[in-house]
């Protein structure tokens, strides 16, 4: 008897329905035949709530804007970046200007050094000629007045050349070194003889034998002098 009951219950069909099929099944207009067409193996279908997702996306955007600071913060960040770029350009321009200024000063210094060196070399060769002209003028004192009329005219021309050449050297910056009456300076004076005298203080230049010349701070040649000593 029990076996018959088990067989009867085992033949009862079991159907699984989802919510939509359940509503159709419970509807008064539901057709019993449709109930038989329900697939027992079908799984219920879940439809996402579109409105809920839109609200979540909107919330994410708002939170993102709040976290990032929004357009105002983005504009501030861009402004600061532009200021940093301008400051960097200003610093680079200042460095370039400083480099150019140093370059200009170096070029000017090198040009002046080259000019002074060339002028000093030329002057050193011309000074020998100037010395000879000066010696010719000094011989006038040894010529008797009655016998020197023609020679004096000649010396007038020599004196003119001497003054003109001295003017050219001075225009180039070559100037004579003051010696007589000055304290002896071994950097610009060269003592060739000493003399004990009471007319000058000791270690004072009492006579210039050959004129010295300089170009700015550059010494072209020292002055040959006689130096006074104690008696």
Helix/strand layout:
Layout: H1 2-10, H2 19-26, H3 32-36, H4 50-68, H5 70-138, H6 149-171, E1 174-176, E2 189-196, E3 205-210, E4 213-215, E5 218-221, E6 223-229
Parallel strand pairs: 2-6
Antiparallel strand pairs: 1-4, 3-6, 4-5
Helix pairs in contact: 4-5, 5-6
Verbal overview:
With 231 residues, the protein is α+β, with helices and mostly antiparallel strands. Among the domains are: 69-110; 177-231, Nucleotide Exchange Factor Grpe, Chain A, domain 2. Helix content is 58%, strand content 13%. The chain has 6 helices and 6 strands; from the N terminus they run H-H-H-H-H-H-E-E-E-E-E-E. It has helices spanning 2-10, 19-26, 32-36, 50-68, 70-138, 149-171, and strands at residues 174-176, 189-196, 205-210, 213-215, 218-221, 223-229. Strands 1-4-5 form a 3-stranded antiparallel β-sheet. A 3-stranded mixed β-sheet has the order 2-6-3, with no helix packed on it. Helix 4 runs parallel beside helix 5 and helix 5 (70-138) packs antiparallel against helix 6. It is elongated and about 105 Å long. The N and C termini lie far apart (169 Å).
Biggest β-sheet description:
3 strands, antiparallel
Strand order of the largest sheet: 1-4-5
Give the termini distance in whole angstroms: 169 Å
Radius of gyration: 58 Å
β-strand number: 6
**CATH-defined architecture of the domain at 177-231:** Roll
Structural class: alpha+beta
Which terms would index this structure?
single chain, 231 residues, alpha+beta, Nucleotide Exchange Factor Grpe, Chain A, domain 2, 3-stranded antiparallel beta sheet, 3-stranded mixed beta sheet, 6 strands, 58% helix, elongated
């Amino acid at each position: 008897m029990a076996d018959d009951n088990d067989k009867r219950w085992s033949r009862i069909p079991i159907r699984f329905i989802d919510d939509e099929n359940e509503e159709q099944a419970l509807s008064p207009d539901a057709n019993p035949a449709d109930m038989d067409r329900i697939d027992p193996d079908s799984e219920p279908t879940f439809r996402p709530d579109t409105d809920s997702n839109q609200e979540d996306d909107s919330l994410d955007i708002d939170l993102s804007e709040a976290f990032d600071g929004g357009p105002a913060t983005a504009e501030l960040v861009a402004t600061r970046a532009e200021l940093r770029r301008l400051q960097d350009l200003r610093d680079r321009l200042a460095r370039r200007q400083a480099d150019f200024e140093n370059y200009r000063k170096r070029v000017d210094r090198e040009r002046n050094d080259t000019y002074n060196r060339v002028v000093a070399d030329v002057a050193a060769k011309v000074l020998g000629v100037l010395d000879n002209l000066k010696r010719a003028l000094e011989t006038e004192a040894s010529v008797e007045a009655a016998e020197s009329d023609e020679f004096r005219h000649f010396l007038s021309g020599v004196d003119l050349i001497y003054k003109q050449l001295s003017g050219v050297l001075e225009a180039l910056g070559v100037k004579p070194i003051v010696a007589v009456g000055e304290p002896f300076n071994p950097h610009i004076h060269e003592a060739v003889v000493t003399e004990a005298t009471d007319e000058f203080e000791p270690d004072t230049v009492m006579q210039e034998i050959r004129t010295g010349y300089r170009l700015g701070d550059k010494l072209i040649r020292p002055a040959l002098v006689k130096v006074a000593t104690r008696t």
